[in-house]
Design goal:
Length: 203
């Protein structure tokens, strides 16, 4: 199958988030991956082993959302494509390796979620008041990413209450209807995780 080239605007949205994430130290040592839905059939996703702070057109691959992942593409591509298949409203997915998300996902793997409550930042992920509870799902990491994607979708479904999840010892995935929404959700969830980790440290 001949896949289309990623539109320049899609590449730039991905690259812009890469620069933003790299400036905050969220994608060390080429970690992380970012994707953007192109349309109902295709998505663009970053290739493996690239500097996420310097993404160019050749660093982004186009994949068919409903087809097997081709060789040479990021091993984590199935996690992105499964989310796009489950929820047609998702337009972008960003995965980062922050300290807070990596540490807390290990600490709370057995509980199945990292729980925060009472933070004003809850509004950044769609809640209407700080007087609320957010439970960010945590999944055990698995090198078989097709199997992992199936486990994640079985739990989250189309109506996930939080626009993100954690992989134990691996980091944060977050999504939104647009790249701007996905970026806001990454920022909001990362802030909540950082605050929660600091509270634990100070107790």
């Amino acid at each position: 199958m001949v896949l289309p080239a990623a539109p320049s605007g899609v590449v730039e949205e991905i690259a812009a988030f890469g620069r933003f994430a790299a400036s905050r130290g969220w994608v060390p040592a080429t970690a992380g991956n970012f994707s953007r839905r192109i349309d109902g059939r295709y998505a663009a996703i970053t290739r493996s082993g690239i500097d996420k702070g310097a993404i160019g057109p050749h660093d982004v691959a186009v994949v068919a959302i409903g087809e097997p992942v081709p060789a040479g593409i990021s091993a984590e591509t199935p996690l992105h494509l499964a989310r796009y298949r489950t929820d047609p409203g998702i337009g972008a997915i960003f995965h980062v390796h922050t300290v807070a998300s990596t540490v807390l996902s290990r600490l709370d793997e057995a509980a199945g979620a990292v729980r925060t409550d009472g933070f004003e930042m809850h509004k950044a992920i769609g809640l209407r008041t700080h007087a609320s509870v957010v439970e960010i799902p945590v999944f055990a990491n698995d090198q078989d990413t097709e199997r992992l994607a199936a486990a994640i979708e079985a739990r989250l479904g189309r109506d996930a209450t939080v626009p993100g999840f954690l992989l134990a010892g691996h980091g944060l995935y977050a999504w939104g209807a647009t790249a701007a929404d996905a970026r806001r959700h990454v920022e909001g969830l990362e802030f909540l995780l950082a605050c929660h980790l600091e509270e634990r440290r100070l107790r």
